[in-house]
Structures
1.
Amino acid sequence: MTEKPSKNNKVSLAEVARAAGVSKMTASRVLRSEGGYSEKTREKVMAKIDQLGYLPNRLATVFAGDQTSTFVGVSIPDLGNEVFAQVLEGIDQKLGSFGYQTVLGLTQHTHEQEETWIRTVLSWQPAGLILTGRSHSARSLEMLRNAGIPVVEIWDLNSSPLDMSVGINHFDCGFDMGRYLVGCGYRQFGYVGTSHNAANAATARLDGFTKAVEDGGGKVQRQLCLHDTASFYPGYYGTEQLLAGDTQAECIFFQNDSMAFGGLQYCARNGISVPGEMGIAGWGDLPVASVLGTRLTSVRVPHLKIGQKAAEILVGRLSGEPVQTVFDAGFHLIPGSTVRNIETL
Amino acid sequence: MTEKPSKNNKVSLAEVARAAGVSKMTASRVLRSEGGYSEKTREKVMAKIDQLGYLPNRLATVFAGDQTSTFVGVSIPDLGNEVFAQVLEGIDQKLGSFGYQTVLGLTQHTHEQEETWIRTVLSWQPAGLILTGRSHSARSLEMLRNAGIPVVEIWDLNSSPLDMSVGINHFDCGFDMGRYLVGCGYRQFGYVGTSHNAANAATARLDGFTKAVEDGGGKVQRQLCLHDTASFYPGYYGTEQLLAGDTQAECIFFQNDSMAFGGLQYCARNGISVPGEMGIAGWGDLPVASVLGTRLTSVRVPHLKIGQKAAEILVGRLSGEPVQTVFDAGFHLIPGSTVRNIETL
DNA sequence: ATCTATTGCGTTACCGGTAACTTTAGCTCT
DNA sequence: AGAGCTAAAGTTACCGGTAACGCAATAGAT
């Protein structure tokens, strides 16, 4: 314990080498099991590594430019939304299993925050990036192109991505739900969601929904875009607002299941029978939907899988493997019991 | 565009300096607004930085040892659990606002994964760490001590922490709930939760609960620790299992609200009136609790605040400010309507 | 006119690893 | 015994910034 620790109180490879009576280079070789040393030397060095509690400084390795880092920058709009939390979980699980580390960035759905974060994270020389969404600021795009690293855009499937894309087609999600509800006999619809500055996935769903409804001779006669989080209570009071207006809506499509539950609850408390007097449809198939008495009409999305697949193709690309650059994770409409179906007409 | 890009295709400060006709050092000074250059020089350099799209390499700066990095390693058990997602959101928001980056690590509640992650993240020379939980492997503890960086243990308040601690006293949470339920007249209790290897917060709650119940002359006569996630469906079938046994439980305490909702749903489907025939209490006050018809008896915990406070005291410590090393974020019992209260006795 | 400050900038060395090269020791084979 | 080879090391240079120091030119003071 008479070792003189270096300035920052950390043991360097040079100190290990000195203690073991070999050169830095030999110690480095042992550390990396590179070969070119005797068994006796290996043991000496390993013993000292253990004894001194040496931890390699990966900064130095990456900095030297010999290796790429094992950072992967991951931007997520927010974690209040359960689905994004699951996507992130999928990403980090997979990245971790491949030896990569997630550097998180919450963008709060804004281009500005995303841009700031991209600038910062790129300065750490990440191996790659995973970004939620397909819309980015001009400066972000420029930085991403200049960075020359793999980028996966997730969530909203981008058929001509910056580099790679994993997600689902949200327009189609909305469209299928619209067609299904028209098929159930509904014609007059309301929509309750939250507005974000960027053109985002929820907007694409609404667009697809509106298209299908209009194709079927119906109408989305009232759209509510609240300035709030896309969660239970906004779904509740959003429904209240929507129904307070002079509306003939027979069915409400919500931005997601959390909001739809809010709507469901509003109806329950105000004696509006579902699906008798009002149809309710959500999106995202939250876990809570599987256990409540009424099965919410929704769309099941493989959140975890999107994250895992994104991490997989990123790592694949980093390993030089040929990868599928666009991956559609698919979705699945859940009929549920909160809209009347053909039989009940 | 005749600039020769360096090996990794990135523009270095040296190239900027050469293009601007100054030395590296002068360019560095301009970049950091350190002074010691003329306005004319500043303009020349800034113009070239812009023109060449220069992005600083923070690895080099940190590596040189002059500065500490702006990485903060954050370990979270899992993100399937909504409360941890909120804690993480609070952490990343605050860290981001101070210019720090979150390096995420999901430990799946195991010491092994935590240890592996700590080893990796320390090799990136983080400025500090935020760890969920107060229990760590011996090797982890050794590494943490050797690292010589600030560490905040969150979630489960540790009155004699490794370094700093932010969270709540889970024993007290359980105790207060136990005392409250005894006060409601219950004596025979069941518990439904999930088991994890490590001594964790949920266990502390159960311990506190048991203590209060026994102090009040009651008994936790059946404890169910499922090998599953602490979510809705396990709460559902856990309740089924608990009640299938020869039990006289009048009230069930769940590990969290998600599980409690599952239990509530089981009762609803099986004609067990709540709180008439069975009391139900959860923990965590999930957002869903605020909108469903029945207000779940629960404990409100300032999730976001715990994360934010942890980030704050970590940054404070890094800035050399004196900080409060132990911060009790407090909790608040929500009586709810899923247990009979004194009046209904 | 000479002597100090100050300003503006350049030079050198270094952080902790590793690639590429060189050296040394040990061995085999003629 | 010396040439030729190989295994096991050591040496040097470098990655991209920044601290520390040096130094010339100018400004102000005496």
Note: Chain B touches chain A through 66 residues (CB under 8 Å).
2.
Amino acid sequence: METKDVVTALAALAQDSRLAIFRSLVQAGPAGLAAGRISELTGIPPSSLSFHLKELSHAGMVDSQPSGRFVIYTANFTTMNALLGFLTENCCGGNPCSPVCTPACEPEQSRATEKEPT
Amino acid sequence: METKDVVTALAALAQDSRLAIFRSLVQAGPAGLAAGRISELTGIPPSSLSFHLKELSHAGMVDSQPSGRFVIYTANFTTMNALLGFLTENCCGGNPCSPVCTPACEPEQSRATEKEPT
DNA sequence: TCCATTTTTCAATAATAGTCGAAATATAGA
DNA sequence: TCTATATTTCGACTATTATTGAAAAATGGA
């Protein structure tokens, strides 16, 4: 995943309405939700919702599929996993993330003396 | 981690300059980098850099520590992990989602899988 | 104190993002 | 075809974010 796409994906989720939309879709699972149902669940008016769904879609975070008069939206787990993979590598700096993922991150004063990992 | 904080953290990273800054700091490890060094590495002019560092700091993604005439910035791995935890739960919808951390992040023994009190 | 160095704040501007009612589009069924 | 339903687009507006030179603030050392 290129950083350009990462920024786009992050920006897609970095907004109250869109994060709520995405969470609804994740919770709904592979069956997804119709746009109107998302509007009901989140309280976002249809026109605003459409705007945000387009953002999410453009970022690859959701897919859509017409179904009769409805449009079913689903969370794109592949993109989400790619995003998490990128962030994890960034978080871990390419090293095994033991110093990161253990609760040993709190000492603030005495870690400037540690040497940089390879 | 509350969704408000998640949105703030995501927004902090959802920008070219800030993602570059954060990656530099992750790569630098716990020793961190002086502001001027970040400016050199990223090519971001000092005033812009200061703006973005403040954003990152406000989001809890970086910490700073004066050191003489320098200000040393470090990535806040705790926040980053909390963010990844939230996103992983969102991505997985409460189900196991092993493919996220497989490549480089294999824990050697026991990783503290901290749960938030929500 | 005075100076060089480092970083932040200020200020003005440019660019992008968010909101939502109303109109337009598309579809299914009668 | 006509109508009700579902969704998107349009348009006008507001709000937020990003950029950066110049000035200011803070520090260590001569």
Note: Confidence is low (pLDDT under 50) at residues 95-118 of chain B.
